[in-house]
Design goal:
The chain has about 525 residues and is of the alpha/beta class. It folds into three domains: about 120 residues, no CATH class; about 180 residues, Rossmann fold (3-Layer(aba) Sandwich), CATH 3.40.50.2000; about 180 residues, Rossmann fold (3-Layer(aba) Sandwich), CATH 3.40.50.2000. About 50% of the residues lie in helices and about 10% in strands. The protein is elongated. The structure holds uridine-5'-diphosphate.
């Protein structure tokens, strides 16, 4: 089509120049038509120009067929055709009976714009779908960093690598991990300003990135045409993948990993998330009952809403004594140090500062902080403050920041206790389950999804969010009562193996994907409620 369009474009340009520049006069402007037809055409000159330039732009767009840089391609077509039009009008001034006509230039400009839109639509709807034994899924996630939502997606996509691709809007270690898992990836990188827009961003910051967002929507729509289903894994991904799936005429699954409330999102972002989900999502998967309820309370009204928690690989392989010794040496941890592990990105709402406060009252404890500031300047400032606090005399030498690590298992094996200290409701809390699966006692804050994972005094201990005293008491309790610690750990491990095995979770997600394929009948609510598993 591209070659044909190029030939046709060359013909159109030559024919257009001939028609425009040949020295014709007044009524005999179009010599092969009867005069009164020509007069009539003069009356509709504006629309004649509009149509001619629209056809020219359609053909020019198809001749270029841009796969990326759509904004540049549109600017190129628009400016080249308009400049050509103005030039021809200028030359026409020198031809007897012709004059510069600004209305023609305007008609050409609007016609070209319309032609670009039509050219894009033709390009979009002639893209062919991939074939495969399973539904072809385009997963979309905005970040290149590895957070909880990305780790979950990595496991889902890796299991159906032959029938999936992951589209990211930022490059990074997530893409590398997907490459390692042999999952096809595409990166449509967003610019610096767009990446910096976080869940709390207001209208002004969002307004600045609108042209870039539109371009990503169009690019995503083109890619989505190759797939059966689009699967948005994060809120920002939804805002782009939602309209893209609509344009591509593909069904959309939205995996909700966030509590949609004002403590996590600005009003504007909440509005965009709920609006996109309601308008475009065919099915929504919430990662906990808490995220589901928050979604509904915020106005989410998707017909097919199910709860599927995160899944985890169940393994019996744990670190050897040598591995643990090496790690101790690497961290300069004393041989018998009683160690508390907190894993997760460094950000104020995850509550690392609460653990530091509690540690002042538990002098026998060492703490390991696994994770880094991933997303915002505020997080990076918070990470600096944490390090400053950890250098205080009451804590110095007992707090170990190790940054982000992919190999987290040895850290969990080394720890005596796992702490989760989020100060606001946690959507799910993967680290809690990871601690349980490592057969370690877990202390977590009683809020959001975390509150659904543990049973107090049976599979873990709950403390109130933002209460360092209560956390210190819980730590002292586990330090003093090793039998309790052991009991909580073994019961928790069994419960987690039962509720969070990856295979079961994958098949529930596959069920939702299947129900969104074009051949599937609209899923009944009762069907999808099979996917609901509440631990
Ligand atoms: N994690 C990791 N490396 C680190 C710190 C954390 O791989 O250095 C993992 C951690 O094991 C967990 C995930 O990041 O699987 C964090 O998920 P969680 O649900 O706790 O928090 P989220 O990032 O989703 O808010």
């Amino acid at each position: 089509m591209k070659r044909l369009a190029r030939i046709f474009l060359a013909f159109l340009i030559l024919a257009g120049l001939w028609l425009a520049l040949k020295p014709t006069l007044g009524n005999r402007r179009i010599p092969f038509l009867p005069i009164h037809w020509s007069q009539y055409l003069d009356l509709v000159d504006f629309w004649f120009n509009f149509g001619a330039f629209m056809i020219l732009a359609v053909v020019a767009w198809l001749a270029i067929s841009p796969g990326s840089h759509l904004r540049h391609a549109a600017a190129l077509v628009l400016s080249a055709i308009t400049a050509g039009n103005v030039l021809v009008e200028q030359v026409q001034r020198g031809i007897p009976g012709r004059a510069m006509d600004l209305a023609d230039v305007l008609a050409g400009f609007i016609g070209t714009l319309m032609g670009i839109v039509i050219g894009f639509a033709i390009q979009l709807y002639t893209i062919h779908k991939r074939e495969g034994s399973k539904p072809q899924v385009l997963f979309v996630d905005q970040t290149g960093r590895l957070g909880g939502a990305e780790l979950m997606l990595l496991d889902i996509a890796a299991a159906r690598a032959a029938d999936s691709a992951v589209l990211l809007f930022q490059d990074g270690e997530f893409r590398e991990a997907l490459d390692e898992a042999k999952v096809e990836t595409r990166v449509f990188a967003l610019g610096e300003h767009a990446v910096a827009v976080d869940k709390q961003a207001g209208l002004r910051r969002i307004f600045h990135i609108v042209p870039e967002l539109i371009e990503r929507v169009l690019q995503t729509a083109m890619l989505a045409r190759e797939f059966d289903v689009v699967y948005a894994n994060t809120a920002k991904a939804l805002v782009i993948a939602g309209p893209a799936s609509f344009l591509a005429r593909r069904r959309l699954v939205f995996h909700l990993h966030d509590i949609v409330s004002d403590s996590h999102f600005s009003t504007m972002n909440r509005f965009a998330l709920i609006g996109s989900a309601n308008a475009f999502a065919h099915a929504v998967i919430a990662n906990s009952e808490a995220t589901k309820q928050a979604f509904l309370s915020a106005g989410g009204s998707v017909e097919h809403l199910s709860v599927v928690p995160n899944g985890f690989k169940l393994t019996d392989t744990r670190s050897t004594e040598n591995d643990l010794q090496d790690l101790r040496k690497h961290l300069s941890l004393p041989e018998h140090a009683w160690t508390v592990l907190m894993a997760g990105r460094l950000t104020p709402w995850k509550g690392q500062h609460v653990l530091l406060k509690a540690l002042r009252e538990v002098p026998e404890a060492h703490a390991i902080f696994l994770g880094d500031a991933l997303f915002t300047d505020e997080d990076r400032q918070y990470a600096r403050e944490l390090r400053e606090t950890a250098a205080e005399p009451s804590l110095a030498g007992r707090v170990h920041f190790v940054g982000f690590r992919k190999d987290t298992a040895t850290f969990f094996d080394l720890a005596n206790v796992i702490v989760h200290a989020s100060v606001i409701a946690e959507p799910f809390g993967r680290v809690i389950v990871e601690g349980m699966l490592a057969a370690k006692p877990v202390i977590a804050t009683r809020a959001g999804g975390a509150a659904e994972i543990l049973t107090h005094d049976q599979t873990g201990l709950f403390v109130s969010p933002n209460d360092a005293k209560e956390l210190a008491n819980a730590l002292r309790r586990l330090h003093a009562d090793r039998t309790l610690a052991h009991h909580l750990a073994t019961t928790a491990c069994e419960a987690a193996r039962e509720a969070y095995g990856l295979d079961a979770v994958r098949s529930k997600i596959e069920h939702v994907i299947q129900s969104c394929t074009p051949t599937a009948s609209t899923p009944s609510l009762s069907n999808l409620q099979h996917a609901e598993i509440l631990p």
